[in-house]
Amino acid sequence: MKISLVSSVVVSAVLLVGCGADAPDAASSGAKPPSEVEAAVTTTIATVPPNGESITIQVLDNSYRPSEYEIKAGTEVVFENRGRNDHNILPESIKDDAGLTALLASDMSPTSWGIESSAFTPGDSFTHLFNVPGVYKFYCSIHGAPGAGMYGTLTVS
Length: 157
Ligand SMILES: [Cu+2]
Description:
- By secondary structure, this protein is of the alpha/beta class.
- It is built from 3 helices and 8 strands; from the N terminus they run ααβββββαβββ.
- The protein has 2 domains: about 1-40; about 55-155, Cupredoxins -  blue copper proteins (Immunoglobulin-like, Sandwich).
- It has helices at about 1-20, 30-40, 95-105, and strands at about 55-60, 65, 70, 75-80, 90, 125-130, 135-145, 150-155.
- It is globular.
- It starts with a helix and ends with a strand.
- Mean pLDDT is about 80; it is low at about 1-30.
């Protein structure tokens, strides 16, 4: 899907340059479309296909176990609420459940992730495929804060 998108952008740029070629002086103005194409390509998020690996992080009262994990891109992570309380899993940049709801509604990219407390009650599990390398810091807004309390880090390489 992403490759075909990039291809179509490149094709349209070639067509633009082709049109400009009718007038010899238009060749310099034809230099603009390629920079727009470059911007479009760099905003595309490179994803890795699932690698068949899966790990489990237990969500307890009140910690993630383990709280730090290093995985390869394409690994599926299963969070299991084994506690007696509701918990949530929020990216560090998100303040609360409502903020996560807004994020997930507006950003469909694979790096947009998390689970609200209402959907993560005792016995619930939440699975996310981490297919973009990066450092994912997360926390529970009920029992922690970014960098403190119920807090964890996933390093995806
Ligand atoms: Cu919690």
